[in-house]
Each structure stands twice: as C-alpha cells, then as structure tokens.
Write a structure and sequence with these properties.
single chain; 248 residues; alpha/beta; TIM Barrel; 8-stranded parallel sheet; 9 helices; binds nickel (II) ion
Length: 248
C-alpha cells in the first residue's frame, strides 16, 4: 500500500471526494495527506479528517501572501493539536509568479517556520525558483519535513537531505525532457516520498486529465524502475520514510 503524501482534495476541484478516496484505495493508495494552502482550504482539510486514513497539514501558501490575514495563522495554531494534523504546510517561497512580493513571502514563511519549531511539527515546503532563500530561511529554524514537488539539481537535493528533509516526488518524474530521473537515481531511496500534488501535475500517460491520489501507483511504478526495486520494496521503504518524518 502507498500513501499520497501531498494532495489538494478540495471541493473546487472534485465533485465527489468520497469517490476519489475509494478509487485511490482500489489502486493501493490507502493513505492521503491533504495540504491546506489558505484559510478556506485549511478549514476543508479539517473537515476531511474523519474520512478514514486521511491526514492533513495546515498552512498559508506563498501565492496567498497578499490575501492572508493574521487570524489565518491564529486559526492554524489553534488546530495544530488535532491528532491527524501532522505538519505545517504548504508553506514556502515562489518567485516564479510572485517575485514582487518576495519580502512579504519571506516574512510569512518565517512566521510559519517559527510555529513549526514551537510545536515541534514537520513542515511541507513549496519552493519555486527560490532555492537559495528557501535554504537560508530553513537554516534559521530547527525543523525537518518534506520538500514537496522536488525538481532541483543533485547538489540541491544533497543540501536538503543533509538538513533532514525528504524529497517529495510526483508526476514530474514521468515527464519527457525532464532530468529529474537522472538526479533521483543518485539519491538514496530512504530520502524519497511519493505524492501526486492532485489536481495538478498529472503523470504520463494521463496528461490532460485531472490528477488524483490513485495516480500514486503510476508514479510508484516509474520510481521502482529507476531504483530497480519491486513495488513492495518501494512501498515498504517509502512508508518507513513517512513514519520517520511525520510520525504516522
Ligand atoms: Ni501542493
């Protein structure tokens, strides 16, 4: 069985979330970690936790930096004690779309890293075209976690791993003209977790369709081939990795 360590199972993307969860289970994906991005989705995350093996993370995404309010962070802090809220995320820096809000993003990121440190919780990191600043921010806090949707260089991978982070691998690994395969080959399997980032980043050969957690199995098959391990071995090792970082 596999876990989708990063998905956005929200009503704006899916008509019938129960059906999506059922389909995931039929495809050997029994656990899902749903990542909040803003106040609205954080509330949805909490409402999903009753649905079997669903876990959640709460956070404010860097793309939400302009609309976020102090009270959003208060809400997050108030709900961190829920036993199925296992991390703070998705948080980080995104200079691709939001370069002009750099300072505000760093401030918001650090507020949430401080919160993770205070409650001794792992973090789920979004970093796009912002590697250097992400590393600088992470260095200031005693935190560990997952670099979600990792697609950087081997050198960057090694830095994150040395800092205690795992790399979240998703459908990007299946894309043609993507050198992530060559990077991942050199990374120890004990530093990898699988995710979909649903509804985004649908793996090959399903491009053009909406992504969903059941597609972890497609990603798993690509990754097993890269490492020359069986599905079973991959499942065993990645589940142990998840246990280590998220304590579930
Ligand atoms: Ni995401």
């Amino acid at each position: 069985m596999f876990c989708d360590t990063h998905c956005h199972l929200f009503q704006e993307y899916y008509e019938d979330i129960d059906e999506i969860i059922k389909l995931a289970k039929e495809n050997r994906v029994n656990r899902m970690i749903v990542a909040g991005c803003d106040d609205k989705s954080n509330k949805e995350v909490l409402s999903l936790l009753e649905k079997g093996e669903i876990y959640g993370t709460l956070g404010v995404h860097p793309e939400e930096v302009e609309s976020f309010k102090e009270s959003d962070l208060e809400f997050i802090e108030k709900n961190l004690s829920h036993p199925k809220i296992i991390a703070i995320g998705e948080i980080g820096l995104d200079y691709h779309y939001e370069k002009e809000t750099k300072e505000k993003q760093i401030k918001l990121f650090e507020l949430q890293l401080a919160l993770a440190e205070k409650y001794d919780l792992p973090v789920v990191i979004h970093s796009r075209e912002a590697t250097q600043d992400t590393i600088e921010c992470l260095k200031k806090y005693k935190v560990k976690g997952v670099i979600h949707s990792f697609s950087g260089s081997l050198e960057t991978a090694k830095i994150y791993i040395k800092m205690g982070f795992l790399l979240g691998i998703n459908g990007v690994i299946t894309f043609k003209n993507c050198n992530l395969k060559d990077v991942i080959k050199e990374v120890d399997l004990h530093s990898i977790v699988l995710e979909t980032d649903s509804p985004y980043l649908t793996p090959v050969p399903f491009r053009g369709k909406r992504n969903e957690p059941s597609k972890v199995l497609t990603i798993a098959d690509y990754v097993s081939e890269i490492y020359h391990v069986s599905r079973e071995t991959l499942s065993e090792i990645t589940n142990a990795n998840i246990q280590r970082v998220f304590d579930i």
